[in-house]
């Protein structure tokens, strides 16, 4: 059951619902009573994307259709999915292959420049032996949009895959990453930050399956919800039989700044091997009242103090981004979302 199937067939029963364990907090069948018409083709200009100037080449999808394409397999590449039609449905798929020994930085953006659209994006990513890929994903959806982004990632021995997802949510939004980890000294870093206000919803779901010896996974997600927003974190690390000497760490930490906001978190470790080093942690709370009191005593307005503390809280995720330009853009995005720009 997927949104993609529903968009292709028009069958609402294909939508995932709360009866599906992995979708119980991001119910699409209960939300969508009808599917909007397909988005029309766009033949006009496309506004510049958020990573403009950072990439040597870019591939652009508008309303689900590929407008421009780059075959670059190394260097810095932008991948854009742009919604330009109100109350329309769009679906897109794309394949990314990083050849053995190559290095790629993927600057991926999902740009909601229309209202109340329904979007489904599927990515198939393969990272070759000894290759590396850093994927930075900036999701800027309309408040009334429904958006599902799914990435299937396959790693070869010795590959490195690093990912950072930044999102402000939507009416319903799910960013899902599934990684087939071969062990064999391959390394994975999966990070994310969600900053949600109003009635926005964001679901960051991931599954990393270790299938062989000597694999490393490090995962850190941080979030903030206020007003009536809802954040969802589902992280699952599976260590299959025979995947000994796996080193896997997962952390999810979030702030709730309103009595009506909600966070649902489900970190999981499923271990079927011996001689592993695995751990997970999950904390959800509010900002420290004593620190806020101290800030107000120093003449800092409460709203500004909260923004400053939240920027510092999320900063650990931002600092793990290796690409300098993307890291600076991510820091500016956080500051803008929290109203703490200098």
TrEMBL record:
Pfam families: SUFBD_core. One of its GO terms (biological process) is iron-sulfur cluster assembly. SUPFAM superfamilies: Stabilizer of iron transporter SufD. InterPro entries: Fe-S_cluster_assembly_SufBD, SUF_FeS_clus_asmbl_SufBD_core, SUF_FeS_clus_asmbl_SufBD_sf, SUF_FeS_clus_asmbl_SufD. Residues 85-313 form the SUF system FeS cluster assembly SufBD core domain. It comes from the Bacteria. PANTHER family: PROTEIN ABCI7, CHLOROPLASTIC (PTHR43575). This is SUF system FeS cluster assembly SufBD core domain-containing protein.
């Amino acid at each position: 059951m997927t949104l993609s199937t529903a968009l292709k067939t028009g069958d609402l029963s294909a939508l995932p619902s709360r009866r599906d364990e992995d979708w119980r907090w991001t119910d699409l069948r209960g939300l969508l009573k009808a599917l909007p018409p397909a988005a029309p083709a766009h033949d006009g200009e496309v506004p510049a994307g958020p990573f403009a100037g950072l990439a040597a080449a870019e591939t652009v999808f508008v309303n689900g259709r590929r407008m421009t394409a780059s075959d670059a397999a190394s260097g810095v590449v932008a991948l854009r999915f742009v919604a330009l039609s109100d109350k329309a449905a769009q679906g897109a798929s794309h394949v990314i292959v990083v050849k053995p020994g190559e290095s790629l930085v993927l600057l991926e953006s999902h740009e909601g420049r229309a209202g109340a659209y329904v979007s489904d994006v599927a990515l198939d990513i393969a990272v070759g032996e000894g290759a590396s890929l850093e994927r930075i994903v900036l999701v800027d959806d309309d408040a009334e949009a429904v958006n599902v982004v799914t990435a299937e990632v396959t790693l070869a021995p010795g590959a490195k895959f690093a990912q950072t997802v930044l999102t402000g949510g939507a009416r319903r939004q799910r960013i899902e990453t599934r990684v087939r980890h071969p062990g064999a000294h391959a390394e994975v870093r999966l990070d994310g930050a969600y900053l949600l206000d109003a009635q926005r919803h964001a679901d960051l779901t991931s599954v990393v399956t270790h299938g062989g010896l000597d694999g490393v996974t490090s995962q850190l997600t941080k979030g903030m919800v206020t007003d009536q927003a809802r954040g969802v974190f589902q992280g699952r690390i599976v260590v299959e039989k025979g995947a000994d000497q796996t080193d896997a760490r997962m952390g999810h930490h979030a702030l709730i700044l309103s009595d009506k906001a909600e966070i649902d978190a489900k970190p999981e470790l499923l271990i079927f091997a011996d001689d592993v080093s695995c751990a997970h942690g999950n904390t959800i709370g509010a900002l420290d009242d004593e620190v806020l009191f101290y800030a107000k005593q120093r003449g800092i307005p409460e709203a500004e103090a909260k923004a400053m503390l939240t920027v510092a809280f999320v900063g650990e995720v931002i600092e793990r981004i290796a690409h300098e330009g993307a890291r600076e853009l991510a820091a500016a995005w956080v500051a803008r979302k929290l109203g703490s720009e200098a």
